[in-house]
Amino acid sequence: MKHIITAAFIALALPATAQEKLSVALDWTSNTNHVGLYVAQAKGWFAEAGLDVDILPYTDTSSVTLIAAGVAEFGILSAVGFYTQRATGADITAVMAVVQHETGRLVFNGERDDIQRPADLDGMIYAGFGSAWEDALISTIIRNDGGTGEFDTVTLGTSAYEALANGRVDFTLEVSTWEGVNSVLLNRPQRAFRYADYGVPDQHTTFLGANATWLAENPEMATAFVQAAQRGYAFAANNPDEAADILIAETAGMLTNPDLVRASMQALITGGYLQDAGEPVGLIDDGMIADITQFLFEAGIMRAEDGRPLDVMPDVSDWYTNEFLLREE
Fold it and tell me: Do 74 and 221 belong together in one domain?
């Protein structure tokens, strides 16, 4: 059950001294999952909070690694990357849910008649991205539809979408609010299976996270940053078109398809991904955390620092917190 917190957004500023410098690392090339950060930057809300925030571009080093090493105080985290690296002891805490529900989909060519249900995927070719999560996810979906869960994998990374379009592979995974939107713009008909329809727990697919040690030592600064970012995402939830324009402008030409950015923002809003009704933006759900953690543990994906699967279900109560979000008075 989520701890319900609601409040009007207010500027929470640090003492009137020189602005405190902070870095926030991105988990991928700039996209609509990052929109709240860019809105807060453009609107001056980080500055109002007494912060000089540097949004670090995506590199080959994961945002989780950068945060855990103290290179960045904050970062955007993919959910599975967060859980798996936190299980190894990485010094990170999730402080806000950027995305409230699973945006991933198992997708295939919409014109194929031989794929009507997940069990039909047995023996077919999957274009993958090289993570243990994918095998556990897809096998679960197929088995829960009565199949054996056996399929062939070719690791293609982002080339998976071209391979799917030209028929070299049978299915892949995508983010419905980005690649899924793009497939519509490219006039590539697709059909999809939702993970939760076949026994995979719903989850927050993206978090804002922080270095846990820094967080404990700098609660006032952490609160200022998190609430300014929360304000940015709340603005985006209520003003998707303007937020899309801000994202395009702030990323200085990195996003070359404005139609994709705007359509992605609409998909986030229409799908209810940025905010659940009656709840504030960013709230982390205790039950969702518990359910997906159990799934990952039972699938053997959560491993200790020595690489061996965890023997005991971890206590995840201190892996995340809602304490820095805006609350009721």
Answer: yes
